[in-house]
Amino acid sequence: MGHDKDKFVRSGTFSIGGHSWSIRFYPDGYGKENGHISVYLELMKEGAKVRASCDLRPEPDQPEHWVAIFGAQDRAEDVQLQ
């Protein structure tokens, strides 16, 4: 887009696994990435100890639509949202 690797768009905050998260989208990539976008799952509370995963994939029947699957683990509890 604008070739500014420091610019990002942040989603609204959402809750998974009892923690607040957002998504950071870098349309021009992040760091030394060239010709790519970068997407990060961001924990909004500093110092929290959480294991998280995020999987982005196109829908099989509609490849122009993407699905985000999030998971978060705090202590022994697994939480998944689809």
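Second entry:
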Amino acid sequence: MTSSLETGGRRRTLATLAAGAAAAAAAAGTYLQLKPREQPPAAPQTRGSRRFPDVELTTHEGKRVRFYTDLVKDRVVFVNMMYAQCSDRCPPMTYNLRRVQDMLGARVGHDIFMYSISLLPEHDTPADLHAYMKQHDVGPGWTFLTGAKADVERLRVALGFYDVDPKVDADIGQHTGVVRIGNDTLDRWCMAPALLDADQIVETLMAVDPVARSSGRTRVS
């Protein structure tokens, strides 16, 4: 027979275990309530997003865009710098790049995009850039851009339109002579003189353009 002393001991043991379990459950509940909700992992940065500042710019149509997110990401692009008041160096370069645009045909604005960024954004309004485009008969798929001076300067340096000599770098005319050509998806980038023969600029594109390279063409159009 079980003595009353043993029975009482068992009851006390069970009561202690039950109390311990209840305390543990309460503590777990409190922990779950206090534990912060896990956030989804941030999207990994691409090389391009680290390479270029995603500054806000304004197009010749007055539309606000982000340089990397809206204009460059996953695209093949041509980028050069100019300013609407430029009367000697910029027009010949614009004319030459318009020949490039003509050679690329319907691909411009479809899978190849051309951008010209003002070096004097404090003076060049969207209307000024639109007038410059009309004057030089620029076709669709080529966007002209302006923005805050500090943002354009950051972008200029990131794109490689600068000189290590501060005196040379201070001359904005030194930054109009080349065009940056890139494929963000493949992270392939190069440069070409803006006054290089249009055929050769198009040939330079082949170094970064998967469509032209995969077909083995010697001409993009």
